[in-house]
Amino acid sequence: MTIRTALSVSVLGLTLVTVLSAAPLPTGNSGIAARFPFDAGIASDPAVIFADDFESYSSAAGLTSRWNEAYHSANIRIATETANVFRGKSLEFTVPQTTNEVSNTVAKVVSPREDTLFLRYYARFDGGFNVVGSSHNGSTISAQYCCPGVPANGSNKFLVSYEAWRDSGATPNPGRLNAYIYHPDQRDIWGNHFFPTGIVLPFSSVPFDFGPEFVARPDVTPVLGRWYSYEMMVRANTPGQRDGRIAFWLDGQLIADFLNVRMRETTALKIDRFTLDLHVFRNNLAVARKWYDHVVAARSYIGPMVSTPQLTSPAGLRVVR
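^ thats the sequence. predicted structure below, dont judge the formating
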C-alpha cells in the first residue's frame, strides 16, 4: 500500500521524480452501505468482516456471543426505548457519577489480521453528558495493544481512538473530535491527540509533520443528544516508509485526514482488534451515557446508512456509445 505515487520523467538525461497527490478518499453515500438499505444484509458483502445492529440480544449478557469482550456488565444495557435507540435496539453505556476511573467496552478480535480497516457505527451522546479530562468515548482500532502508558516503538503496538476531547470546562461538551494515538513518534508515554487542524497535543507549539499534502480542516464538536454516523479508517504504513493514513468521517463528510503517519516497523504488526468505548478517568460532574448502533467493520469505505439503494458507477469502466 502506498499513499503517494512517484512519476519518473526523463529530461535531458536527468530523471525527475514528481510526487503526486495522496489518493482521494471516498465520501457520502459512495461506500458499501449504499448497496444495503438500512444495512439489511450488509454482512454478506465480501469486504465486510463484521456487522452488528444489536437486534439479536435480549440483554447485554448476550453480547459475548458475537463480541470477544463486553464490560462492565453493571454499566451496559441493550436499550429499546424510542428516545434512546437509533433503530430497534441500541447498545447503552453508562458511567456513574464517581471519582473513580470507569471503563466500559465491547471488543472484537480481527482475524485474520488486517493492514487496513474501516469502522463505521452510529452513536449519540446523552444530552446531559458533562465530562472534563481523560475520556475515551468513541471507538478504537489497534494492533497488539496491551495497556496505557507504554510507548509504541514500531514493533510492540499501535492504537487509534476516534473520540471527543474536552480539556477544560470552557470547551463545549462533549469536546472536539480527534485521534488519540499510540505510535512510534508519540511525544508522551500516554500517546498524542491529533486534531483535524493539524494541532498535536501535548506540546502543541511544535508542528507535527503530516507531509506537504496534509489539508487542515476545522475542529468539529458533535451536538449532544443527536445521532451521527461515525467512520474511521486506519491504514498501517509500509515498514520503513511514512505512508500510514488515518481518516475520520462524520455523517459521510471527511472531517480529518492524517497523512505521513508511521505506526509500525514490521509487517508482523497488523490490526487485530477494534472496540466501542465509554471510559472516564474521573466522572465527578454528572452521570455519563452514550448509545451505539449499526456497527460495521470492513476492508473498504462503508459510508452512512441509506433508505433506498444508491447507484454507484464502478471505477475503471468506459462508456461505449
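Residues 1-20, 313-321 have pLDDT under 50 and may be disordered.
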